[in-house]
Amino acid sequence: MKFNPTDYKRRNITIWNEVAPRYHKRWASISQGPFASTTKLVQLLDIKKGDSVFDLACGTGVVTKKIREKVGRSGYVIGGDTSVTAIKIAKKWNDKNSNLDFVNVDAENFHFSEKFNVITCQYALFFFPNSQKALKNMKKHLQKGGKLGVTVHGAAQKVPFFSSIFDAVTEFIPDYVPPGAPDLDRFGTKTALKNEVKKGGFSKICVQDFNFNFNPGKFENYWQNYLRYVAKPLKEKLDTLDRRQRKELKDMVRENVKPFIQKDKTIKFPWEVLILTAKNRD
Length: 282
Description:
CATH topology of the domain at 5-156 and 183-215 and 270-280: Rossmann fold
Strand order of the largest sheet: 3-2-1-4-5-7-6
Distance between the termini: 40 Å
Strand content: 15-25%
Largest sheet: 7 strands, mixed
Oligomer: single chain
CATH architecture of the domain at 5-156 and 183-215 and 270-280: 3-Layer(aba) Sandwich
């Protein structure tokens, strides 16, 4: 089946509208694991009072909130996302301010009449079917010398929280993710991320890697939370497995997790994150 980017986007919007509340509660509202990167991203961009900033794919507004604290009353921040539910949470999570707004936009097609000092994009570039169109759109909306900040997950083997389950599930459900859909780690190396952003027309590119840790509890906590939080379209595919297959799947995941189990039986996953900063040379 040929990959259809429009269908993929619609599917993603449906999924994020469903999972945004529990995603925010479990991940985004805390600074643990990969979300320790939020502070790093804002620091590396050296956002100043009075700056205008667009936080693309802002999700539930966690990066947006830290940015607003930096720009002060004289600055301006806009958070944009395709998920209406995420935007609603972002508005509640962020206090009402005259210099803060949230909009429902597509990364590849958004348009503003004004240009920004800074554009941020955390954990989303890999989701965009046409990442070049999105990057060129970001560049078009940056002032000359304006800064771009992008955060992505590292390569699959360096983010075993995902791969321990995903590698096992795809053995049983090959179409668990739509064929041709962008991979979560498509920009998971410094070279891949730098080349993609350079191709988008940016200069003075710097990519730094950070290694965080995340403890999801003991194996049973990790497994049950996966089943509890998985999005409906994926859960429906998991539900097609019979009891024997589900046991085999769980055993395979348990085997994948073994290298990360500590003496107290809890899991300690390493989690590589890449943060890129660049400038608009035009």
